[in-house]
Amino acid sequence: MNVQQIMNALEAKHPGEKEYLQAVHEVLESVESVYNQRPDFEKAKIIERIVEPDRIFTFRVSWVDDKGNVQVNIGYRVQFNGAIGPYKGGLRFHPSVNLSILKFLGFEQMFKNALTTLPMGGGKGGSDFDPTGKSDGEIMRFCQAFMWELWRVIGADTDVPAGDIGVGGREIGYLYGMYKKLAREHTGVLTGKGITWGGSLIRPEATGFGALYFVEHMLAKAGKDIKGKRVAVSGFGNVAWGASLKATQLGAKVVAISGPDGVVEIPNGMTNEMIDYLIELRASNRNIVSPFAEKFPESKFTAGKKAWIVKCDIALPSAFQNELNGDDARELLANGCWCVAEISNMGCTPEAIKAFQDKKVLFGPGKAVNAGGVAVSGLEMTQNAAHISWTTEEVDTKLHQIMEDIHEACVKYGTQPNGYVNYVNGANIAGFMKVATAMMEQGVI
Ligand code: GLU
Q: Where would you tag: which of 66, 176, 333, 366 has the fewest CB atoms within 10 A of its CB?
């Protein structure tokens, strides 16, 4: 394969889909040399097939707001690749949502899900609906209207959506209620469900917990320990909460969180009370982090700045794609940061990743680091299919094992001759090989 040629062709076919093209480019660069040793892959046109979604559904979502006005949004489901299992991946409700973003997320999800060792294909969906400032009733009516269309194309063995930005336990509840009414069955069609109606213990914490287990392995391999280290986290949603909680439990100090409005610096590290408050802050639906500093005077809010201005050992992007750019990377490096683990999907720009890797910083890509979330979703599917529920310890032990296996796969495929582990290459190659092998065995479909 010639990466540039494939990218040119893809750009001509999908002009302007910059996030999708960025995600594809990164994977192609990683897998180029392994792929070129496999003429059978080339003959079967695996690359040309793997970069295109199996299918995409788009639909109109009409609903009525609290003032009685009719609102219209767009809904999507991208069923990216079903080679290794039912399509699986979250729903994102955010005004920025478009096809480029959902295709990039679906593409990443396919490899991430392959890394979890569980049988799940890749998918993603969502809407340009903005939950900020919406009442509970409006959120419910939107979710119901969204599911009225989506329910036709999903199913416990077909496609299993879950949460992502703007979709948490509350939204999954409203979506599930409507699905159940339309399909007349109570099944594991969504994950991230409430604990009283088929949800899995540890699912809300899983993305953040899994990320910290992965970081522990990265550090152990480099002969380091997380205790006493300064950790900067971006975002203040579900993922940032789980990561802050586990980092604190492991003895690290979470010294920064951030939101679209600015950064909160916490010089002495987050307390348990602060971590609990994150849940309240998110539930307020205001999408600003400044109230945190008003509630805890020992912290300091700086408007318009990112978490990366705060001096730290470990940086954990946990908010949005491309939230950490080249300038941010240089600032982190100048301040002595030596480990970066993306908990957001594609949280760092290619320029930032290159800056970290050039300086031999420990760098973990999102599709490995944040795979714990979808992994526990996979465990929720297993529990639903078997009509059982596992204890917290059972789920946490499995999550630990999965993150260790993902780390091992990254080390296996990503260790360079000089000993540096290129986790980006490792994750991309390991994920790709699994999906490509499944596609080869299932013929040209
Ligand atoms: N949205 C999460 C992710 O990016 C979770 C998906 C899921 O649980 O299906 O992996």
A: 66
- pTM, rounded to two decimals: 0.97
Q: What CA–CA distance (Å, rounded) separates 349 from 329? A: 9
67 backbone dihedrals φ, ψ, rounded to 5°: -90, 0
The answer to whether 250 and 213 are in contact (CB under 8 A) is no
Closest ligand 1 atom number to CA of residue 192: 8
Residue span of the structural domain in which 343 resides: 206-360
**Which of 135, 152, 185 is the last residue in one of the domains?**
185
Which among 104, 370, 374, 379 is the best mutation to test ligand 1's pocket, defined by most ligand atoms within 8 Å of the CB? 374
Domain edge (last residue) among 360, 393, 420? 360
d(CA 310, CA 303): 13
Domain contains 81: yes
Count of domains observed in the chain = 2
Q: 306 and 230, same structural domain? A: yes
What's the pLDDT tens digit per position in 98-117? 999 999 999 999 999 999 99
State the closest ligand 1 atom to the C-alpha of 120, by its place in the atom list counted from 1: 9
Q: What is the pLDDT of residues 303-355, one digit of tens each?
A: 999 999 999 999 999 999 999 999 999 999 999 999 999 999 999 999 999 99
Residue 124 designated active-site? yes
